[in-house]
Amino acid sequence: MKHIASESTARPHRPSALGVVLATVVAVSACGGADDRADAVAQAALVAQGQQIFRHDTFGDEVQWTDTLRLHEVIATAVDPLTALSVGLKVDSEALPPAVVEGIRNGSVDLHSPATTVALLKLNAVVGVKGTVETLNGVDRLARVGITCALCHSTVDNSFAPGIGRRLDGWANRDLNPGAIIALSPAVDAATKSALNAWGAGRFDPRHNVDGLNKPVVIPPAYGLEGIHRITVTGDGDEIAYWNRYVAVAEMGGLGTMSEPRLNLNITHGTQDLVSAKLPALQAYQLSLKAPTPPAGSFDAPAAARGKLLFEGAGQCASCHSGATFTDANLRLHPPADSMAEPESPSYASRSATKQYRTSPLKGVWQHAPYFHDGSAATLEDVVQTYNTRRSLGLTSQQVIEIAQYLKSL
Ligand code: HEC
Ligand code: HEC
Hints:
Keywords: Heme, Iron, Metal-binding. With 410 residues, the chain is α+β, with helices and mostly antiparallel strands.
């Protein structure tokens, strides 16, 4: 393995959830009354609990990933760590004990052995994958495997090596190839396997197993959603918890119930409900995730300033991307023709509960290329040029670049 960043003493300090709780308590104690303090403590505890759920809770979905798809067998026999990284799985470096870190560095940890993957799962170090490892006569065996929200909505900062680093919760894992992973299952037939293998990295179709149609969307970030009361690209839910319930039950296979009369959907898995009670904390955690600010020097500030005027003026962008979150989502949804990804077949809107699209929020948009729900625009310049052509805006190529620079500054 090539150069690996040393665990320098200068490692930026990332506060633990408990640290955040304490800091909040201290800050609030300084000014508020007893009730404010109690509220802040309760809220911080809820967020901390939500972080655990987001990262580590499978909602009992091992029934789907182990009993039905038998992915534990595939992992234990065929998925060495290099293969796991190649399908976009990420390793949480902070979960690795010093001996393992040293072993990866000096090559004594075998990255070509599935047993190492099982060892990483035992350490709870594979982001979004939860393994239950049983030890019999000194031999580890992967007994169960399940997935968590972090599989698709977290990545790592690559600070240790590519694919290995500290968690970045809420960031979409655009390297993850969920279709290719599910297609590894011995329980999936050949036709389904080829459909799943065609999805590609960073894409997932959260309606395929519900309506039988097949066209994936890009995995979106789960940050920057505070104050937005239309969730998903089609605005199906008024709050995050609506969609979390949908995914936890209908896609992850968690134990609980999802009913959606607009889609004539009624799914119940199991006899227990391992989802409902967790939704408030899970939502509180996601609402606490701010969109990341653009790195210093990543955009041209004077061009961005000119781009802002064009965004609000000749580009007509602000007529839909309005307000602090750059979306009119709380006021209206839009007909399919307002999406630059349409017409598409099958239309994603037509498969949703609202049959419309939500204007995308734009905070942190620099971070998550490709763009539009189908990922059809590779860059922000492509996005603006698409609008320029489709909406006959008459922007010069210089103006297109300036609007793109503005988008990179949000
Ligand atoms: C297999 C990948 C995958 C997993 C696992 C997954 N999601 Fe998602 N998530 C997606 C995709 C794809 C979408 C886009 C769907 C859409 O907008 O119609 C999405 C949408 C979302 C959104 C909407 C974002 C927005 O801009 O409105 C949120 C929030 C979210 N997911 C949170 C979660 C949480 C919490 C969990 C765990 C309960 C979870 N997801 C599990 C793939 C996944
Ligand atoms: C008529 C309303 C409307 C106007 C005008 C509009 N947008 Fe959009 N915008 C949308 C909708 C709806 C989406 C979601 C499309 C989709 O993903 O299918 C979107 C998506 C985007 C995205 C993709 C975000 C992501 O997460 O992938 C960007 C970037 C964007 N718009 C920028 C702009 C810019 C720049 C302009 C002006 C040149 C503009 N928009 C004008 C409604 C609009």
